[in-house]
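Progress report, Aim 2. The chain analyzed during this reporting quarter is listed below.
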Amino acid sequence: MLDLRPNCECCDRDLPPESPEARFCSFECTFCSACAGERFRGACPNCGGELAPRPRRPAAALAKYPASTTRVLKPH
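Predicted structure tokens for the chain:
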């Protein structure tokens, strides 16, 4: 089950579960589309993996399996 982290690890921008701006890698490192594209050129700064659009969880499933509320912020 994906965590659906609530923020960009770089700029701390809010990324709610329904956000089309969220990008993540296979380790679930999470970034906003601006940081992922402009700053990191589509590669995760933590692992080097591809940053892809994060899937959105349907509202009914989100109620049963809520998104993470733990914010991750790392200096990049």
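The longest strand covers residues 22-24. Residues 32 and 43 are 13 Å apart (CA to CA). These observations will guide the mutagenesis work planned for the next reporting period.
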